[in-house]
Design a protein that fits this description.
Elements (H helix, E strand, L loop, with lengths): L2 H11 L6 E7 L2 E8 L2 E4 H7 L19 H6 L2 H20 L1 H7 L2 E3 L4 E3 L8 E5 L3 H6 L9 E5 L4 E2 L4 E4 L6 E2 L2 E7 L15 E8 L2 E2 H7 L12 E9 L10 E6 L2 E7 L7 H9 L9 E3 L22 E6 L3 E9 L2
Parallel strand pairs: 6-17, 8-14, 9-19
Antiparallel strand pairs: 1-2, 1-5, 1-14, 2-3, 3-4, 6-7, 10-13, 11-12, 11-17, 12-14, 15-16, 15-18, 18-19
Helix pairs in contact: 2-4
Amino acid sequence: MNPRVSTLETAFRSRGACLKLVTFKVRDQERLGALENDVVVDLSLAHELYPSELLEGSSDIPSSFPRKMIDFLELGQDAKKYASNLVEHVRALSKSRPREIEQRRMFLNVSDVRILPPVPCPQKIICLGLNYKDHAEEANVPLPKQPILFSKPSTAIAGPDDVIVYPKISTQVDYEVELAAVIGKRGRDIPESDALDYVSGYTVFNDISARDIQFADKQWFRGKSFDTFAPTGPCLVLSEQVPDPHRLRMKLRVNGELRQNSTTANMIFRVPHLVAFISSVMTLQPGDIIATGTPAGVGIYAKPEKKLLKPGDLIEAEIESLGVLRNKVVSTQ
């Protein structure tokens, strides 16, 4: 057996059952996978090896596994359970039929694929302003009485290890680590008591902002909407594996220096309230992203002097259980 493949299988077997879904590209094809350590399991290939008799009673599972995250989310709860079953089946096959696993190239090293944003083309990116008490305090503004919403276009999306392009027309580019909730099913006027049933999972979001444009405009859309200003990833962790999204440590580092260090417990308006509030205005759809706000520590309010981003900086946004989202800042070409 190829020793490199054997190493990949060992890395896959050694991990627990926390399912982290990724969208990845290999040989110019977009596919869905499960990420464990530095191993991506191709779920389309895993589907081909899943015994047909085990699919009985899963009428919502199509004959071929979805290759796009939104298509997967639209299949609902059965698809999430099936993806977990696929991973466990492959885990067993890696022990009982390792040669077949090797021949099918079911295990891929992350260095051999391009990891894309979990949802590469969301229909909506809905963001929260001033949703952490300490961030409102550092900005010297009153605490909001209701959620403050703004949006980003889908063209702002960037994935893990993608670059953030520093705009020519800005000199004050900043970072904001945020927890993002990804919607799993369509809903309007969702009761707060049912809201978490509409959240498929969570990922890391970095709300990159051109502060000079944001403040000059007196509203936030243009200054936060440049291409690459919505890095997201590295994976989607299913909501069933995040018992409480309001008890997660969150950090952001620039060139290794810790800039933000907080917890989602400090949110003013929590995820169920946000889902209910937003859905009272608009229909939420599978793949929609709700970025829930950032804590204190952003560069524009740093003391004694601002700590804004510059080309060449490496940003690492990290949330407990969800992973680390890394992006480098580059100059506009």
